[in-house]
Amino acid sequence: MDPLGDVRTAEPAAEPARMSRRQTLTLISMASAVKKGASQTVVGLIFGCYAICNLIGSLVLGRYIVQIGTKFMLVAGLFVSSGCTIMFGLLDRAPAGPTFIALCFIVRSVDAVGFAAAMTSTFAMTAKIFPNNVATVLGSLEIFTGLGLILGPPVGGWFYHSFGYEVPFLLLGCLLLVMVPFNIYVLPSIEADPSKDSFLRLLSHVKVLLICFVIFTLSSGLGFFDATLSLFAMKTFNLSPGYVGLIMLGLSLPYCLASPLIGYFTDKYPNSRIGLTVTGGVLTALGFCLLGPAPFLHIPSQLWLLVLMLGIIGFSLGMTAIPTFPEIIVCARERGLEEGLSTLGMVSGLFGAFWSTGMFYGPIVGGLISQHLSFQWAAAIQGGLGLLAALLLGGYSLCERRRGSEQQTEDSTPLLSGGSA
């Protein structure tokens, strides 16, 4: 979710048009940071602080979305993100050393809060305006995410190599800035009363905790790819960075195609959400185990298998991720939380917080396991984490359904006895 996300390679000059926009901008900014005297550890902390600030921002803004206002939060988030993106492009002019490093931390942290505001308000507003088609709308939005990943690399890479460091950031920032007046004009203002409910009450529902665990495993898996997949592919199959970027399309394209279909299906058949989430989680785990493949399978690494598993993971991510947000909304209603914008804001904030936690965990832990063991073992462990989350959610849902059936049987028994008498 991070517009300046994680790095996958360290050779920006090699076939840049095939790298993702996130890779391109991240490589540019990291190269600038190293040039300005920042160590690799400091560079990692600069980009790691984004996830932490995004987590905190999602929770705080989700809790007070009614007091702030959804429209204002979205517009303000876009404005802040656009300004920070432009400032990040101008940081190359700052003096090297502590001043540059401090400015990097400040800009990244503020940008994370702005992005959290935009995403939290977007999710809440979507659920409020389209209460019966939440998954369909969110799934459709992922199409535009895919278009950005596909069109961003050639455009951003060309501008960087033609005009230098600042231009990609300035263009992206100005594009976000143009969206500010557009959203002010188009978006409706939503009035609501604050709720006394809290995140603790929402998280007291066991199913919500398990769904959040699923969300965490999804984002940590994507973060794991950012930190490890490129190096593994280049080392194992002798691929150039550009071809690694093409391989990553095997992940993004199936996800973009699956998301709107899964969204439409789960809105039409709401009872299928948990089943699709669990099935998607199992398929994702299988994909991770065969990605390396896992050492205990004794299967040699093959490029076609890697691409095939990325496609399966991309499709299964759509199966798993899209149903989670509307399902948490249903759980909130079952828990007795007030139906309204305040609850939707908390659900959005909770989703964003656990997604950010996974994006922080995935690259760090995945990178450490890959360094000390191997990519194959790291992928298998990541798959095992996703499998655990899917099985826990599936098992709890089955137990919950069985308890509901038994309760319904007990409630109907006195009526049958009375009728017989």
TrEMBL record:
The keyword Aminoacyl-tRNA synthetase does not apply. One of its GO terms (molecular function) is transmembrane transporter activity. It comes from Oryzias javanicus. It is a multi-pass membrane protein. Signal peptide: none annotated. It is found in: Membrane. Pfam families: MFS_1 (PF07690). InterPro entries: MFS, MFS_dom, MFS_trans_sf, MFS_Vesicular_Transporter. This is Major facilitator superfamily (MFS) profile domain-containing protein. Residues 1-401 form the Major facilitator superfamily (MFS) profile domain. The keyword Membrane applies. Keywords: Membrane, Transmembrane, Transmembrane helix, Transport. The chain crosses the membrane at residues 42-65, 72-91, 97-118, 130-151, 163-187, 208-231, 243-262, 274-297, 303-322, 343-369, 375-399.
